[in-house]
TrEMBL record:
<feature type="transmembrane region" description="Helical">
    <location>
        <begin position="120"/>
        <end position="139"/>
    </location>
</feature>
<protein>
    <recommendedName>
        <fullName>Major facilitator superfamily (MFS) profile domain-containing protein</fullName>
    </recommendedName>
</protein>
<feature type="transmembrane region" description="Helical">
    <location>
        <begin position="91"/>
        <end position="108"/>
    </location>
</feature>
<feature type="transmembrane region" description="Helical">
    <location>
        <begin position="57"/>
        <end position="75"/>
    </location>
</feature>
<dbReference type="Pfam" id="PF07690">
    <property type="entry name" value="MFS_1"/>
</dbReference>
<dbReference type="GO" id="GO:0022857">
    <property type="term" value="F:transmembrane transporter activity"/>
</dbReference>
<feature type="transmembrane region" description="Helical">
    <location>
        <begin position="183"/>
        <end position="205"/>
    </location>
</feature>
<keyword id="KW-0812">Transmembrane</keyword>
<keyword id="KW-0813">Transport</keyword>
<dbReference type="GO" id="GO:0016020">
    <property type="term" value="C:membrane"/>
</dbReference>
<feature type="domain" description="Major facilitator superfamily (MFS) profile">
    <location>
        <begin position="24"/>
        <end position="274"/>
    </location>
</feature>
<feature type="transmembrane region" description="Helical">
    <location>
        <begin position="20"/>
        <end position="37"/>
    </location>
</feature>
<dbReference type="InterPro" id="IPR011701">
    <property type="entry name" value="MFS"/>
</dbReference>
<dbReference type="InterPro" id="IPR036259">
    <property type="entry name" value="MFS_trans_sf"/>
</dbReference>
<keyword id="KW-1133">Transmembrane helix</keyword>
<dbReference type="InterPro" id="IPR020846">
    <property type="entry name" value="MFS_dom"/>
</dbReference>
<feature type="transmembrane region" description="Helical">
    <location>
        <begin position="151"/>
        <end position="171"/>
    </location>
</feature>
Length: 274
């Protein structure tokens, strides 16, 4: 501990936080922004002959919208358990590329069944993103600093809700280009950036403070001090056991936050996906 104190001497913690925000938050926000656009753009595609081209009834369209959340809920927890083994950089990059490919391929569907299949896959691959990003941020920020940074994710979701409609309006005017309807171009053009972003994520997103290319040795020492304040200095304090999972699922505060999150998500998803 004394060695870390000596090594981190002269580093301003407030400036360190600003540096973390500068390098991490824009990328994290961009990832979540595009994930939100790609999951709700089916509502915008509906305005550009999606239902007519695929001969969908209103109820079939609503099923296609809702089926996304079935696999999304089912795969959230397993996806974040996988994150521990594959490292955040690899797993988040994999998730981003995967949903980008699925979202892009939605522009090529030709039946109700293929649309349903894509929505099911999209829910599965996007499931681990939001909780995964929350876990990832804990590698750099203390619990007292997290609220603001998680709030940035909700800001990006709100921006996506507004930006998605504007993008769809412009892309929708490509109706007829290459013989494809406007809704197909919406899926393709809004999906491709996610694939590119996933590749960028693989190279730009550090796994933790120890591998953060933008930190100096002194700043890494301070980050280690911050980590020890939260977790202690033993490895066992960071390991997850079965009893930790049981404790999480039986904690009333977790369920209270679930209810609150339900209200937030209802507002975020309700209008964009109509």
């Amino acid at each position: 501990m004394d060695e870390l104190l000596a090594a981190s001497r002269g580093v301003d913690e407030k400036k360190l936080l600003k540096k973390l925000d500068l390098y991490l938050i824009p990328l994290v926000m961009s990832i979540y922004l595009f994930s939100f656009i790609d999951r709700v753009n089916v509502g915008n595609a509906r305005l550009y002959k999606l239902e007519a081209d695929l001969s969908l009834s209103s109820s079939q369209f609503q099923v296609a919208v809702s089926i996304f959340f079935v696999t999304y809920m089912f795969f959230e927890v397993p996806s974040n358990l996988v994150l521990k083994f594959f490292t955040p950089r690899r797993w988040i990059a994999f998730i981003t590329v995967s949903w980008g490919l699925v979202a892009t391929l939605m522009g090529l569907v030709n039946s109700y069944g293929s649309l349903i299949a894509c929505r099911i896959l999209l829910g599965a691959v996007e499931a681990g993103l939001f909780p995964g990003l929350n876990i990832y941020l804990t590698f750099f920020y203390t619990k007292h600093e997290l609220a603001v940074r998680v709030g940035y994710l909700f800001v990006s979701a709100a921006i996506a809700g507004a930006l998605g409609g504007i993008l769809a309006y412009g892309i929708g005017h490509m109706d007829g280009v290459q013989g494809m309807s406007g809704w197909r171009w919406i899926f393709i053009i809004e999906g491709i950036p996610s694939v590119v972003l996933g590749v960028i994520t693989y190279f730009a997103l550090p796994n933790d403070a120890g591998t953060a290319y933008f930190l100096t040795d002194a700043e890494r020492a301070l980050m280690e001090l911050r980590r020890r304040r939260v977790y202690g200095s033993t490895k066992s304090s960071e390991q997850m056991e079965r009893r930790d999972l049981v404790k999480a699922f039986t904690d009333w505060k977790v369920w209270a936050f679930c209810v609150a999150q339900f209200g937030v998500d209802t507002m975020l998803y309700g209008k964009p996906m109509e």
